[in-house]
Amino acid sequence: PVSAGMKGSAIENFSCVIYNIFLMNCTWQAGRDAPADTQYFLYWQNSRDEEEMECQLYIKDENCRNVGCIFQNVSIGMEKAYFLVNGSSKDSLIQFYDEYIDLYKIEKLMPPSNITVNCDEIKSDCIIQWQRPQISHSSKDMCFKYEINIKYK
């Protein structure tokens, strides 16, 4: 359905990223035609079984307008998460913005840990080993691709 409200008042450039295994940061820009007093509010639902929650920690711009949110203790489920950003203004109705997102697709992976390098000068070779990064959505070993950049000094 088309959102009621003033055309151009809905947020733009909505994006979220999950980092450090359980933190999620969502950001947006105010609608280009939104009145100056417009304030935005973010709600999200991790799955149909969970309750919709409002952001508890908003990121504000220089005009104290909500332009983002930081979520803690985020867990990635099997379903797409639902995000809704609505707005209010004393001057006019504000259009809402909503989107379904697969959370595993927006996770920024941690670097590998416990990296060790053992070189054999006689054979002129090195063995490099590491542990795969921790990820929030599974404890199973997944298919990872790694890029190794070796610089000789």
UniProtKB/TrEMBL annotation:
Q: Identify the domain of life.
A: Eukaryota
Task: Give GO MF terms, alphabetically.
Answer: cytokine receptor activity
PROSITE patterns associated with the record: HEMATOPO_REC_S_F2 (PS01356)
User: What are the Type I cytokine receptor cytokine-binding domain coordinates in residue numbering?
Assistant: 13-106
The signal sequence is none
Keywords from UniProt, A to Z, are: Glycoprotein, Membrane, Receptor, Signal, Transmembrane, Transmembrane helix
Where does it mainly reside? Answer: membrane
**Any single GO CC term annotated in Swiss-Prot or TrEMBL for this entry:** external side of plasma membrane
For whether the record's keyword set contains Lipid biosynthesis, the answer is no
Q: How does it sit in the membrane?
A: Single-pass type I membrane protein
Write down what this protein is called.
CSF2R factor
UniProt source species:
Loxia curvirostra (Red crossbill)
